[in-house]
Amino acid sequence: MTSTDQQPFLSVRDLKVHFSTEDGVVKAVDGLTFDLAKGKTLGIVGESGSGKSVTNLTILGLHDRERTAIDGEILLDGKELLTASERELERLRGNKMSMIFQDALASLSPYHTIGRQIGETYRKHTGASKKEARARAIEMLRRVGIPQPDVRVDDYPHQFSGGMRQRAMIAMALVCDPELLIADEPTTALDVTVQAQIMDLLKDLQQEFGTAIIFITHDLGVIADIADDVLVMYGGRCVERGTKKEVLRAPQHPYTWGLLGSMPSLDGPVDVPLSPIPGSPPSLLNPPSGCRFHPRCAFAEKVTDGRCSSEQPLLQVTDGRGAACHLTADQRRDFFADHTATRSH
């Protein structure tokens, strides 16, 4: 999703991540490809179990190597991550790439002060002294909007509100000025006011540092606020991708239509009922044949030759835009128009 004359900072090619379990092999990610440039934000959206978090934990090398079969290619600034040693990955994590987790309270140690936790990350990667690390922690707390950072640096996580803990997590993730930041649903547990503040903070920090951001969420409203490009995942695969404007205004896949139909509109009639997607996400132990979305797709019967249930649709991408669907371009345009008209009445 970058221009052809620009080398992507992060390049993922045909990534497959399969876990061995007592019940069989879980195909958590099954052939994923995308690029991300510096200073840009890629929003990865999909229901729980679609493979979003597994993808990004794999980029960071945070997987059980003994029970996980990984194939494909992940290049970070030209360096292959899948063949990197654990020592190499430790040097990269927190330094060149970093992650903000969804639950800050669970991710922060209750036994150490906020300042110590931020400072230890800085000391590990820079060799700074304790005094220098404390000063850096105060500076980062100030940057993320924590009031009285020289005082709050000595507080413990339980003394921070939910929004402030998330800001502290962001400070920790950015303390070494990483070039890639992965945000795994960092605003899900926050109220809408704090959520907006966190989103603005990420955008401001990205502008300041030129950071490449992967933002994982199930909320297309959040995607509309922060992303440049969007990748829609379902059942471990990418079913649609394009710019934010392309995906949200002219979606090409019935699953994306379903996601849009299940969220309220701020500029439409207030009495329009939501249209949740029927059924449940597929089991990745035994996924459906063909298109993995076809058991829940209201349009599968429109493909009269039965390919939806027997043949996996290819994700054909042109200029960063594509969708994996057997419907023709004309059918998709007409069916989405009908879907949109139904939602507006």
Automatic annotation (TrEMBL):
It is a peripheral membrane protein. It holds the Pfam family ABC_tran. Its main location: membrane. Residues 12-260 form the ABC transporter domain. GO terms for biological process: peptide transport. SMART domains: AAA. Transmembrane segments: none annotated. One of its GO terms (cellular component) is plasma membrane. SUPFAM superfamilies: P-loop containing nucleoside triphosphate hydrolases (SSF52540). Signal peptide: none annotated. It is found in: Cell membrane. GO terms for molecular function: ATP binding; ATP hydrolysis activity. The keyword Cytoplasm does not apply. Keywords: ATP-binding, Cell membrane, Membrane, Nucleotide-binding, Transport. Belongs to the ABC transporter superfamily. This is Peptide ABC transporter ATP-binding protein.
